Amino acid sequence: MSTNGRDQVLARVRASLRAAERAAMHASDHPGPPQPPRSDAQRPDRTHAELVDLLAERVEDYRATVVRTDEAGVAAAVADALADLDPGDVAAPPGLPDAWRSHGWRDGTAASHDELQTVQAVVTACRTAIAETGTIVLDHDADQGPRRLTLVPDRHVCVVRTDQVVADVDDAFAVLRPAEPGRPVPPMTFVSGPSATSDIELQRVEGVHGPRTLVVVLVAAPVPG
């Protein structure tokens, strides 16, 4: 970058910082009421099936792979997502349902960062998924494992049940709110597609902050009998 170009960039950064400082000072001098959550009347009228379709569309927009199946097909769908690694080094948290597992997977919950560097893929569940943003939320419960387990391996296969899909962020935080008042909120990870960022030339770079490959196994909820 030329000196002239760098000066222009720095001038814009300084101008943006000054504008942000002025906005912050104005907000502190003129505090307003908190914004109310979006009312039901403001929400698009979608069925739950349409929300599930919207989630799949949004997730695919982020260059992730979506595989639809039912409960009986989860193990096969997960195995297909890992087939090119066979036998591979795959990790999963101990709380993952046995029916979704394959033999030979390691328990990744106690693995160190260096040990996780050798893991090629991780398989987890999730806590909820947001249709409008195509975001999968992990609260790192026993079926998801610690955050490092889902950030270090290069491939993340995440199983999402359709009854975990909510419309928007407001609904997601209602799900994520601790059941007991005053109980600390657990750490959360919001996943919107594979890890990606842009370098200084605005070229897309994947895998910098997490897995380069995300496979979402979308499991249809059983029909009530």
Could you walk me through the main structural features you see in this protein, from its secondary elements to its overall organization?
By secondary structure, the chain is α/β, with parallel strands linked by helices. Helix content is 29%, strand content 21%. The chain contains 6 helices and 12 strands. It has helices spanning 3-29, 48-61, 74-81, 113-116, 147-151, 169-176, and strands spanning 65-70, 90-92, 106-107, 121-124, 128-130, 135-138, 155-161, 165-166, 189-191, 196-198, 204-206, 213-220. The strands form 3 sheets. The protein has a 6-stranded parallel sheet with strand order 1-12-7-4-2-3, sandwiched between helices. The chain has a 4-stranded mixed sheet with strand order 8-5-6-9. The longest helix has 27 residues, at 3-29. It is globular, with a radius of gyration of 21 Å. The termini are far apart. 28% of the residues are buried. The mean pLDDT is 85.
Largest beta sheet: what is the strand line-up?
1-12-7-4-2-3
Count of helical stretches: 6
- Summing up helix and strand content along with how strands pair, one would put the structural category as alpha/beta
Q: How far is the N terminus from the C terminus?
A: 66 Å
Multimerization status? single chain
- The counted number of beta strands is 12
From the spread of the alpha carbons, the general shape counts as globular
Helix and strand pattern: HHEHEEHEEEHEEHEEEE
Low-confidence stretches: none
